[in-house]
Amino acid sequence: MNKIENTYERRHDDCMGLIGSPLASAGIQARNFTAAINEPEAGIDPGFYSTKSLAQDVERLCDPSETVTNARLLNVAVKYFFSYVHDAYDEPVPYGEVAGLYEQFSRHQSMNEPSDDIETMNRLRMWSSVLRVLADAPRAAHVMRGVLTQTDAPQCGGGPFVGVDLGAGTGIMLLALQIQARRNGFADIQTLGYQTDPVSGERTHDLVHSLGAGSVMLADPTREGAYGVVQGRNISYVANEVLAGIQQSLSAENCFRKYQAFFNAVGNNLDSAVFFPEGLIAYSAMAHASVILAKENRFQPPQEFMNEKFVPQGLIFEGKLLPMHKLGQDFYQFLT
After folding, report:
1. DSSP label at 250?
2. How does 196-226 read in b/e, with b if 16+ C-beta sit within 10 Å?
3. How far apart are CA 177 and CA 195, in angstroms?
4. Cβ proximity of 208 and 239 under 8 Å
5. Measuring CA to CA, which residue among 276, 273, 301, 277 is closest to residue 287?
6. What are 241-275's pLDDT values in tens digits?
7. pTM
């Protein structure tokens, strides 16, 4: 337990040196990206950035003959963030515009600068709660890599691929599921995410649908009736963007009741399903307790802790525990 708690003490130091790029992690307000506003290099393309559109980058990743590289995943992450705000998924975007949007997001809760586009700033504020996951591009890219490289991911075996995201957020996990399924040989791919916010939910559905990555249902995932569309079907993969969230505590409302309703609704159809993350360790300061949440316990804490709030401390990737402060570190090299 002490080893896990100590990871938080090091997290600040890990991020302190990353201030030279508009895409560098700030470590505050949901680890938004920050920038030196007057930095002259802000518009210079870094080595990882490609001139292809988001749709082209996604199509390339869907090809099993193409290697999944960190640079390609980071391209998808930053372009997905830009496309979420500006609907530019099918056209190349200059790096300077992407960097500028990250810089705006790093201060979107403050007053506008005189040169800011008011409509853009309003969009950032309107979708702020879900954009915070995407705003940490190294984490978003790392989570995508975890999905795409999961060794026990379903392989094409004659049946459809049915993927579900219990907390769709921006839809980045649905996109990762679609890429994974196509790389693993599935032709019939059905991916569905759940959102409760009609404002961000509509935007998420539009972008996911435009990229051919499924759809988002505006329904309360804490109610068993929300899963009628997947009842009686063998579920291939279950994801949850909320679990990879940034500085967000887990509670009955945003996590435990979703899994409870989902498991109750689909029952034995989850026997062969793969979950991402495979599990996580979370800690409650109020309860002075740590819990392991995984498929085996239906991602439920002990009943006496159901009303507590837990802070994720580590994710289980391919049987290994990854401390939360290390999520995204493999991608920092591209941003300095």
Report:
1. B
2. beeebbebbbbbbeebebbbbbebebbeeeb
3. 17
4. no
5. 301
6. 888 765 578 999 999 999 999 999 998 899 999 99
7. 0.87
